[in-house]
Amino acid sequence: xxxxxxxxxxxxxxxxxxxxxxxxxHQRWADDKAIVQYLPERYKDDGIVAPELLYRNPGGFLxxxxxxxxxxxxxxxxxxxxxxxxxxxxxxxxxxTGNSWFNLGALPNRDYANxxxxxxxxxxxDECLSVDERFLGSMYIAPKAPKKGAELIREYGSHPQIRxxxxxxxxxxxxGRPQYWPLYEAAEEMNLAIAIHPFSEGHGTSNxxxxxxxxxxxxxxxxxxxxxxxGQLTSMVTEGVFVEYPDLRLALIEGGYGWLPHFMWxxxxxxxxxxxxxxxxxxxxxxxxxxxxxxASQPIEEPEEPEQHNQILDMMHADEILIFASDYxxxxxxxxxxxxxxxxxxxxxxxxxxNAMELWDxxxxxxxxx
Amino acid sequence: MSEKRFExxxxxxxxxxxxxxxxxxxxxxxxxxxGGEYYAMxxxxxxxxxxxxxxxxxxxxxxxxxxxxxxxxxxxxVTCPWHGWEFDVxxxxxxxxxxxxxxxxxxATVEEAEDTKMASGGSSCxxxxxxxxxxxxxxxxxxxxxxxxxVVVYL
Lengths: 370, 155
Hints:
The complex is a heterodimer.
Chain A: H1 2-10, E1 21-25, H2 33-36, H3 41-44, H4 78-89, E2 93-96, H5 110-128, E3 135-140, H6 146-156, E4 162-168, H7 181-189, E5 193-197, H8 218-223, H9 225-238, H10 241-244, E6 250-252, H11 260-274, H12 285-292, E7 293-296, H13 306-316, H14 318-321, E8 322-323, H15 345-359
Parallel strand pairs in A: 1-2, 2-3, 3-4, 4-5, 5-6, 6-7, 7-8
Helix pairs in contact in A: 6-7
Chain B: E1 5-10, E2 19-24, E3 27-34, E4 37-42, E5 56-62, E6 70-79, E7 86-88, E8 105-111, E9 141-147, E10 150-154
Parallel strand pairs in B: 8-9
Antiparallel strand pairs in B: 1-10, 2-3, 3-4, 4-9, 5-6, 6-7, 8-10, 9-10
């Protein structure tokens, strides 16, 4: 009976018997020197100069219980991430998504941004991925320098733990434009996913973070991230990125997913009347989303009734395309055990690991990565 | 089956690129001359029952690769005046889903003029009603035949 009671208390949360992949773990450097050491001489004196998010969060942006022993910011001690996150939650793979203050997409100078991306990749391999084989890496490129970015993808993309290329959500022009296609070609060639994660929206040279213009407060900025993603996704689908690169896999991280049923329905509906503008689409637009695009769960949608969450999952085909993400150690993160509401076992397996295994083409055992 | 015969007009009054919309036995039907061939399609879009045949008569795009366009089927695509769905008037098939979304077509032909009155057909057509089926019902098309002299449509 005692054992039964223990099972009962765990039941509503995620079962530790199940594999678990976390699609969004933010590691950062404790000191800028960690990155600057890899910069070429022409930029070493500059250090890191990147546009900052000007919106403020009264509670801070980071989990305050994850400050490292020396007083370092949460996420700056990778060994602490291993203990407090991977080990604590029995996570099989955790995807490093990097430092969200590193707004390479908002920098005006292409060469400097590209060299910062290269330095980040060196640091990622030398000081982050080497810490634990369960860590996966998202390499960086500078979106304004796509040809050089493609070179970086071919240079760093063969590292066995690097499984995707990170693009910031914010950009000068939408990601479906052909100027970005060298990145997609290289990613497909190297069997890497492309990921989009919020940063650079509304800072520096990026467009305003909403179509309505620059918001007044962080609550607006954060709430409307999904609209930026809609712009990027519409562009990539309609411009034919997934026709040209049918094996390209795209992960949209931290942009939400509750909007996806509306988005797919509306895109398909409009396509019926406007198809001749995009005749290269061989199937209705939602076909490409379900086949080529994955969506990270955090920040989880919280409808009025818990059952409504399951309805969203059904409508968006979450069993094919939703992947769990914690966003550790950010303020709006979802706990691996308690963040998601109860789901059917089949759906839970798909969301907690199966879909992400497909997205990143991973072996069941991290020691088989090569 | 018992088809009703409707004389539309002399061929000289429906030249290539032109269309007419006629009430044939209670059903509105568009009759088209596409490059010298005649076609008849029910004036009733299967989406929301718009007067389909009143839409822009045009062509459509295909593509071999993203960013490149091929203009095809010029003069035989009608775009619904309400929502722009494209239908090929020669087959009634929609462009976006030709096998499942179709407009009803009728036989159209040219026949030697008869003395019968224009549009003298019966008042019933068992297969002419609109059948909305879910979100993507078929659109009906009709046969149009032409003999020298007069454009004739059979419902």
